[in-house]
Design a protein that fits this description.
The protein contains 3 helices and 49 strands. With 610 residues, it is mainly beta. It folds into 4 domains: 139 residues, Glucose Permease (Domain IIA), CATH 2.70.70.10; 169 residues, no CATH class; 117 residues, Chondroitinase Ac, Chain A, domain 3; 93 residues, Sandwich (Immunoglobulin-like), CATH 2.60.40.10. The radius of gyration is 28 Å and the shape is globular.
Length: 610
């Protein structure tokens, strides 16, 4: 494409390599570098901590389990679905940091333990009085009052000493998710599994194994004569081992990997991830995958052990890979050699062979899977060779024939191989009212979920435009707008849009003439509240470019109001000024515009407090 010369390409590649280097393991402290640290220390003993929350003992999310495109770097605990349950110091230490991030951890507190480990408690409704009263920084106090994001390291005079069992805060639902406690334990850029510190109790446990996939690793590998994935489901035998539902030996030729669908039951309804998986052949261990610790540099490398395409957040199921992939340096893999964990028929003994999987949970009662196999000596036509045009350490540009749609993948843009393309879509119109297509719709394929740095998408136009009204959008297959990409670069000379993206799908340039809308959630004008214990939510929505916080002005009785956006519901709570709860009549007024400067109809809402 004429608008990007060779110098620009080289600049991007150089920048990508530099960023990758910054994110890589070699920049972590030498004593904890994943490249030099032992993957798993056999028999490691960690301190025994006290339970971090008052009341029920129930783990609802495990360390290292599936989250969309990343590992869960802590452990979740039930809070009886309530806010305000006391959170407890697990051992002696001091409070060293407070945080508030509305779209992730919520209100959080970090405690440095006397043993050198640190613990972060998340989603708190409030900090303990003695913790919060120690803060002297006026900027932090104002941000907390406004419910704005902040991160504050306490000074030496502000740090609060705590003893094991002291209350440091209270459970809540700030940030993402319902009321629960998210707890992390870390030290020197390594996150550790809280279950290894004695936080490993719950009732009604048990391992669930839904299926195991056996996958030919190349076009010369076969299972029962086919170069295709073979799925097994299981039943319990008399020794409580899980054996295939269908009797008989599997015939294996070549190299075959295993992946397992499963979870552990926690309480009556929660599904949590495994703590450890081992795979063996004829009694010899080939690989051990342990969720004992994860480098902070590896948070987003979950694709090396968790299947992003088949796993589900609710654990129905989690899907795990059990072999070492190229590019995998995760601490939890005992054998770091490429391909460790793959079953190779050339190593089979004569006659019957046994593949085994041991699946461990917090309950410490493993489920044992046993698969009987023998070596297949038949000759078969080679299977289809999978084609890839992009590897994690290479770069490529793919374009439409007219060069108006282009995707540039820099080196280290992805984690695993892909065969990417960009084509014109058949989508001809947008479903959303007052939104119009101003370019062709371009589809980047295939469905891919293992991005590292992401790629640069370019869409070029052949006409003069009003850049204020135009933007880059992602569309569903039916033409519905999924999202807008704010802050996209627009080249006024050559008329192209460019955005760094970590998604595949349908993309286009749209014009936005849709006015934002506003309303008060649930209540009609002249509503009467009995008492001051009420919440008022504003619904401010926009089909197009979206409404930045700074473009939304709300007042209560002509006083500036503070808003708190719930990222999951899209509702904005009006929580200040305090006088909004005084007995008497009140008026809320609001104005808004979107990034395209479309102006909403003004809102006026009246209510009374008795």
């Amino acid at each position: 494409m004429k608008f990007r010369n060779l110098f620009f390409i080289l600049l991007i590649i150089t920048f990508s390599i530099c960023v990758y280097s910054l994110l890589s393991d070699t920049n972590s402290p030498a004593s904890n570098s994943p490249e030099t640290a032992k993957p798993i220390e056999a028999g490691t003993k960690y301190p025994e901590y006290g339970w971090p929350i008052f009341g029920d003992k129930l783990v609802t999310g495990s360390f290292g389990e599936f989250r969309y495109y990343h590992f869960h770097m802590g452990q979740d605990f039930a809070t009886e679905a309530k806010n305000g349950i006391p959170l407890i110091a697990m051992t002696d230490g001091k409070v060293i940091k407070l945080q508030s991030y509305r779209y992730s951890i919520g209100n959080a507190i970090t405690v440095l333990h006397d043993d050198g480990f640190m613990a972060r408690y998340g989603h708190m409704s409030a900090f303990a009085d003695n913790v919060w009263s120690s803060i002297q920084d006026k900027d932090v106090l104002e941000k907390k009052k406004r419910r704005q994001d902040f991160e504050y390291a306490l000074t030496s005079t502000e740090q609060v000493r705590v003893k094991k069992g002291d209350v440091i805060g209270f459970s809540g639902d700030t940030g993402i998710g319902p009321s629960h406690l998210h707890l992390e334990i870390f030290k020197d850029n390594i996150y550790y599994n809280p279950a290894d510190f004695g936080l490993n109790y719950f009732a009604f446990g048990g391992i669930n194994v839904y299926a195991v996939d056996l996958v030919p690793e190349n076009n010369k590998s076969f299972i029962n004569g086919k170069n295709a994935t073979f799925t097994l489901r299981f039943k319990l035998d008399k020794d409580k081992n899980l054996v295939p539902l269908k009797d008989g030996l599997l015939k294996v030729k070549g190299d075959v990997s295993l992946s397992v669908y499963g979870s552990e039951s926690s309480g009556r309804s929660n599904k949590i991830g495994f703590q450890k998986i081992t795979v063996g052949l004829n009694g010899s261990e080939l690989q051990e995958v342990s969720f004992s610790k994860i480098s902070s540099f590896h948070t987003f490398r979950s694709c090396f052990v968790l299947d992003n395409y088949r796993s589900r957040m609710n654990g129905k199921p989690f899907k795990y890979f059990t072999h070492t992939k190229e590019g995998n340096t995760l601490l939890g893999f005992k054998n770091q050699q490429l391909g460790a964990g793959i079953i190779r028929s050339e190593t089979f003994k004569e006659g019957e062979n046994e593949i085994s999987l041991a699946l461990f949970g917090i309950s410490k009662l493993p489920a044992i899977v046993k698969i009987k196999t023998n070596k297949d000596n038949m000759e078969y036509p080679d299977g289809e060779v999978k084609k890839y045009n992009l590897a994690h350490d290479s770069y490529i540009t793919v374009s439409t024939p007219d060069k108006k749609g282009e995707a540039f993948f820099p080196a280290y843009s992805i984690f695993t191989q892909a065969n990417v393309s960009i084509e014109k879509s058949k989508i001809q119109k947008v479903l959303d009212k007052d939104m119009a297509l101003e370019s062709e719709v371009y589809t980047v394929e295939p469905d891919y979920k293992e991005f590292n740095l992401g790629y640069d998408l370019y869409i070029k136009l052949d006409k003069e435009i009003n850049a204020e009204k135009f933007g880059l959008y992602q569309l569903a297959n039916n033409g519905r707008v999924i999202k807008n990409f704010p802050g996209v670069y627009f080249n006024t000379t050559e008329k192209f849009f460019r955005a760094r993206i970590k998604a595949t799908g349908n993309f286009a340039i749209l014009s936005d003439n849709a006015k934002p809308t506003m309303r008060i959630y649930r209540y009609k004008n002249n509503h009467v509240f009995k008492g001051s214990e009420f919440k008022i939510y504003l619904v401010a929505s926009d089909h197009g470019t979206g409404i930045p916080d700074s473009y939304l002005q709300v007042k209560v009785d002509d006083k500036e109001a503070y808003l708190d956006l719930d990222p999951e519901t899209g509702l904005r709570e009006i929580f200040y000024p305090d006088s909004m709860r005084d007995i008497g009549k009140h008026t809320i007024t609001a104005t808004a515009k979107d990034r395209a400067n479309n102006i909403a109809e003004p809102l006026t809402f009246t209510y009374e407090v008795k």
